[in-house]
């Protein structure tokens, strides 16, 4: 399992004169999840993501920047963050159709 993942943004984030067009997320440790519930993170709760993403992103985003993100980009980041919560066996298992 990779402990980091880089996501190319569809809509870059403007910070002053700089455009941020990709974000690297790293697998959070327990301390980075303080004040959050894992179940909210697994459900991709926006309030929880806005709190956690700045703690695990490079470049480090601010909460207002996460709040202003394009929804498609935020959804992709949320999926990756939720994926960090899975055990190795769950990540390796192929999806089963019903």
Q: What does this entry show, briefly?
A:
With 98 residues, the protein is an alpha+beta fold. The protein has 5 helices and 3 strands; from the N terminus they run E-E-H-H-E-H-H-H.
Tell me the overall shape.
Answer: globular
Strand element count? 3
Stretches with pLDDT under 50, minimum 5 residues? none
User: Average pLDDT across residues?
Assistant: 91
Number of domains: 1
Order of helical and strand elements: EEHHEHHH
Indicate the radius of gyration in whole angstroms. 14 Å
For the biggest β-sheet, the strand order reads: 1-2-3
Approximately what portion of the residues adopt beta-strand conformation?
15-25%
Q: Tell me the structural class.
A: alpha+beta
Which percent range fits the helix content?
Answer: 40-55%
Helix count?
5
In this structure, how is the largest beta sheet organized?
3 strands, antiparallel
Please tell me about this protein's structure.
With 98 residues, the protein is an alpha+beta fold. The protein has one domain (4-88). The protein is 41% helix and 23% strand. It is built from five helices and three strands, in the order ββααβααα. It has helices at residues 38-42, 46-56, 63-67, 71-84, 88-92, and strands at 4-15, 18-26, 57-58. The mean pLDDT is 91.
């Amino acid at each position: 399992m990779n402990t980091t993942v880089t996501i190319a943004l569809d809509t870059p984030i403007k910070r002053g004169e700089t455009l941020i067009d990709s974000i690297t997320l790293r697998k959070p440790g327990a301390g980075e999840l303080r004040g959050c519930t894992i179940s909210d993170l697994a459900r991709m709760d926006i309030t929880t993501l806005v709190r956690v993403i700045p703690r695990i992103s490079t470049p480090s985003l601010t909460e207002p920047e996460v709040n202003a993100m394009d929804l498609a980009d935020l959804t992709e980041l949320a999926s990756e963050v939720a994926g960090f919560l899975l055990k190795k066996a769950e990540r390796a298992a192929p999806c089963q159709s019903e």
